[in-house]
Write a structure and sequence with these properties.
- This protein is mainly α and 484 residues long.
- The two termini are 32 Å apart.
Length: 484
């Protein structure tokens, strides 16, 4: 018999689990009953959010709860105390506490391995489970404490409100990273869910599920095959894998964000957009304003600007950019692959500023369509190339893949590939069409969806899930950003 309190580290509970979708439907029925009862509504959402997290990380929920209790009290103490030295001490203590869990679970193995290599020691750390979402809720916690310290927001006097903010399940395990200033004011005054909002929410959920289940998971099978041993495949096959993974990671992560935004909207809350057509960016700076917006803005506001931003001369500006993007790489994972990936993007940002930023610190904008297309082509291919580092199991396999693309590319491989993998190429082509289509197409489809009767929408959702059940050949893969 299935026990609802079972959890699995190997198979965490997530949005595309059919058991979750069924549970969500039941949850929404009772949520609608409690909607106008403020205290009970908040308590109900908190309990469900903790249950959701427990189903993904089991006993590690205790660390999450400890962090919530500590930071709530740290923030209140920081706001009350006038002595600047004590305030700063409390700030540092809070940040160190948050980072200590992240460093231990995510980086202790990596640090120990490299320490042993440098000093010829034999320290060892057992294989540790990485609590789901720890990178996201750690950054969320730090942003709250720092904003309270800087006087940008008041600390939450209501423990229930702060717990609601930290545990809110739509964004809990894979973002977006939500700022307290954006979310806490909404907690006690959720939007009344009218017909338009209800249908818009379902549109976003269905869009996110389509991105993940129909496109990302389909492309992942080919990407996984190539990256298992890149040297066994041709340069063309590795090149196609590079483009396929670029599409996979976008549809996977933006799909999660769409579902999170849609579910939050069903509950009466608004989460900010996390993607803005990033592969249409005309330069690398533009890309980072469009990709994983909640992380890139977090890195800007809590690392780049505090370091000095552009206020301490050009050399320091470039140095701070490089440091910020290196930290961004480290945030993604305990591996030299991610560090080099972050450094590469940092160097690209520095070069873009050196070449294209005017003395008045204004970026030169492309002035004609040909320049824009060329800028988009170069930016996309740069980003796609370095996604290889992001996906590869180790640096050697990343090198093998790039080496094959450069030295093993043959035009006559294209015909054979087309004949053998027509369905895959069709899906990859569809992915590119969706990525580069005009944003008005999405708005048109959303408006059209809103006009459909509610019962038909529910029927569409049921048929969609049934369709996914029929076509999937393996279990649905977890979202990529769960591992970060």
């Amino acid at each position: 018999m299935y026990n609802i309190f079972n959890y699995s580290f190997e198979k965490p509970w997530f949005f595309t689990n059919f058991s979750f979708l069924i549970t969500l439907g039941i949850f929404l029925v009772f949520y609608s009953i409690l909607f106008n009862q403020n205290f009970l509504r908040k308590l109900y959402v908190i309990l469900f959010s903790l249950f959701f997290y427990y189903k993904s990380s089991g006993p590690f929920i205790l660390i999450f709860i400890l962090l919530i209790i500590c930071d709530y009290n740290f923030a209140n103490a920081i706001e009350k105390i006038k002595n600047k030295t004590i305030k700063k001490t409390l700030l540092v203590a809070s940040i160190l506490l948050s980072l200590s869990f992240l460093i231990y679970f995510k980086y202790s193995g990596f640090l120990t391995t490299n320490f042993n290599l440098v000093f010829d020691t034999k320290f060892s750390v057992g294989k540790l489970f990485l609590p789901i979402g720890i990178s996201f809720y750690t950054f969320q916690s730090i942003s709250y404490i720092v904003d309270v310290y800087n006087g940008k927001i008041n600390s939450s006097r209501n423990f229930l409100d702060y717990t609601f903010y930290m545990t809110f399940f739509p964004h809990l395990v894979a973002g977006p990273i939500v700022r307290a200033s954006d979310f806490i004011p909404q907690i006690n005054t959720p939007h009344i869910i009218d017909r338009v909002q209800y249908k818009t929410a379902f549109f976003r959920i269905l869009l996110g599920l389509s991105k993940k289940l129909l496109i990302a998971d389909f492309l992942s099978k080919y990407v996984d095959m190539i990256h298992a041993n890149p040297s066994l495949y041709s340069g063309f096959e590795n090149l196609i894998s590079m483009y396929a993974y670029s599409c996979q990671i976008y549809f996977d992560f933006s799909g999660y964000s769409d579902i999170a935004i849609g579910i939050a909207l069903l509950l009466g809350y608004e989460l900010k957009e996390n993607f803005d057509n990033p592969y249409k960016a005309t330069n690398i700076t533009d890309f980072w304003r469009r990709w994983h917006i909640s992380l890139s803005s977090w890195l800007r506001d809590y690392i780049y600007i505090p370091l000095g931003g552009s206020r301490k001369g050009k050399f320091n500006t470039y140095l701070f950019l490089l440091i910020t993007m290196t930290i961004g790489g480290i945030w993604h994972g305990a591996s030299w692959n991610f560090i080099i990936w972050g450094v590469a993007h940092g160097i690209a940002l520095v070069l873009h500023k050196l070449i294209f930023v005017t003395p008045k610190d204004k970026i030169k904008r492309p002035d004609n369509w040909a320049v824009k297309i060329m800028g988009t082509f170069i930016t996309f291919n740069f980003v796609a190339l370095f996604w290889i580092l992001f996906r590869a199991e180790n640096f050697q396999k990343a090198f093998d893949s790039v080496h094959k693309i450069i030295s093993g590319f043959k035009l006559n491989d294209i015909i054979g590939f087309y004949l053998a993998r027509k369905e895959f190429l069709l899906m990859l082509s569809l992915a590119f069409v969706v990525i580069f289509m005009h944003k008005n197409v999405k708005l048109f489809l959303q408006k059209l969806f809103i006009k459909i009767p509610a019962l038909i929408i529910i029927l569409i959702l049921i048929l969609f899930l049934q369709f996914v059940l029929q076509i999937r050949s393996t279990e649905i893969a977890p979202f990529i950003y769960f591992q970060f």
